[in-house]
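Researcher: Please translate sequence to structure tokens.
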Amino acid sequence: MKKISTIFKGSIVAIGVFMSSGAVAQIDVKANVLGLVANDYGLSGEYSISESMSAQLGLMYSVNKFGASSDVADASVDIKWVGFKVIPSFRFYFSPDDPTEGFFVEPYVRYKSQKRSGMSASIPVDANGDYNENWADNSSSTAKYEDREYTNTRTKVGFGIAIGKKWVHDSGFVFEVFAGGGKNADSEVKYSDQDVQDYYKSVLTFDSPIQIHARIGLSVGWRF
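Model: Translation complete:
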């Protein structure tokens, strides 16, 4: 995780250096239309370094809600996910007719953070109301449980590669499609309630079983 975080920070610094060095010939500002389907809103800025190479930084914000109810338990929950992604990358274009236009390959680093709220759990506690770490040794007749509301935050870093094609109209209109994927590092999960975190740590793994991710996009924008 530390190694991937170092790569991520290095990518941000490198992009900043290119922006401040005066090497930028043009800037493309774009929005991924496909992201709107998943309530994923954001913009990316692509800065030309040369005719065949550019540096890009994408910032995305997402909000998703999920409601569920149970007639048996006579209960309902409204779960909300709020998150953001930061994706620095470099693009290499193959024989472009115009600067940073045409087919490209894009190595990237992705940082994702997501907060989930509206959750509750029934956890085993001792006589003082603290988490009972020996709950598994207690009989069901003597075990005591307490309902707790909590939020949790999951962060992860990954890296990957994408390929695509970009078209730039003479008017400045930009259109592109791309697809790719990569690998995630181990997730870091933090709970707002330490007792809930200790309980889940004893029965669940905090790391996501999904160690890969996919990227797909259909972006429109403007060249400045």
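Researcher: Any highlights?
Model: DSSP finds two helices and nine strands in the chain.
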